């Protein structure tokens, strides 16, 4: 019984501290409310793919994920009008060889960033209906466990534009259209 009473008083003490902290936090939140609103979601950025010869049947899409929420989220699946089948893939070492493996989901831990990039996680576009042409875009729909459906526009970069996913907007291949 004494232990139960002690536990109860420790709990009460903890609650008291938590209330004080949350009151203080609330004041801070109020000052930065606009900023916090956009920081409490899962953000998808810099979605890109690489141009391929018209004969290519399979392409890949890469992007950056930022989970600003307090819980881990998982990318469960993706689909695109440009491909018959869309799969989530990872690369794994098999001896000295890297090979692609299909994965059921890709986890983004709470308050973490995850980049899908060449040699790592990627979204495989299988049985392409149209060629991937530099300067064009392709539609991609992502399904997350918590964030739900997120539609993104994937920029197709020229194959000699490097592999940096940081600034697809800087791709100058679009000047070719003039
Ligand atoms: Cu793959």
Order of helices and strands: HHEEEEEEEEEE
Distance between the termini: 83 Å
Proportion of strand residues: 35-45%
Oligomer: single chain
Shape-level CATH architecture of the largest domain:
Sandwich
Give the C-alpha Rg: 22 Å
The largest sheet, given as strand count, sense and whether it forms a barrel, is: 10 strands, mixed
Task: Determine the mean pLDDT.
Answer: 79
How many structurally independent domains? 2
Helix content: 10-25%
Helical run tally:
2
The CATH topology annotation of the largest domain reads as: Immunoglobulin-like
Low-confidence stretches: 6-39, 163-178
Q: Quick one: overall form?
A: globular
At a glance:
The chain has 178 residues and is α+β, with helices and mostly antiparallel strands. It has helices at 2-31, 33-38; strands at residues 42-50, 58-67, 73-79, 83-94, 97-102, 106-108, 112-116, 122-128, 137-144, 148-157.
Question: Can you give a write-up of this model?
Answer:
β1 (42-50) and β2 form a beta hairpin. The chain is 20% helix and 43% strand. The protein starts with a helix and ends in a 21-residue tail after the last strand. Residues 6-39 and 163-178 have low confidence and may be disordered. The chain has helices at 2-31, 33-38, and strands at 42-50, 58-67, 73-79, 83-94, 97-102, 106-108, 112-116, 122-128, 137-144, 148-157. With 178 residues, it is α+β, with helices and mostly antiparallel strands. The chain has two helices and ten strands; from the N terminus they run ααββββββββββ. Strands 1, 2, 3, 4, 5, 6, 7, 8, 9 and 10 form a ten-stranded mixed sheet that branches. It has two domains: 2-38; 42-177, Immunoglobulin-like (Sandwich). It binds copper (II) ion (CU). Copper (II) ion binds at residues 60, 89, 100, 122, 124.
């Amino acid at each position: 019984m004494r232990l139960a009473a002690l536990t109860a008083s420790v709990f009460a003490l903890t609650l008291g501290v938590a209330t004080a902290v949350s009151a203080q936090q609330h004041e801070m939140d109020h000052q930065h409310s606009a900023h916090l609103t956009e920081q409490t979601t899962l953000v998808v950025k810099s979605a890109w793919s690489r141009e391929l010869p018209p004969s290519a049947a399979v392409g890949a899409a890469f992007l950056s994920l930022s989970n600003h929420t307090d819980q881990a989220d998982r990318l469960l699946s993706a689909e695109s009008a440009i491909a018959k089948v869309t799969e989530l893939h990872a690369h794994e070492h098999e001896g000295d060889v890297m090979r692609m493996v299909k994965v059921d989901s890709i986890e983004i831990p709470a308050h973490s960033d995850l980049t899908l990039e060449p040699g790592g996680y990627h979204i495989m576009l299988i049985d392409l209906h149209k060629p991937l042409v530099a300067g064009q875009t392709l539609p991609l729909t992502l399904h997350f466990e918590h964030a739900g459906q997120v539609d993104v526009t994937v920029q197709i970069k020229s194959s000699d534009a490097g592999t940096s996913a940081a600034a697809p907007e800087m791709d100058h291949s679009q000047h070719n259209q003039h």
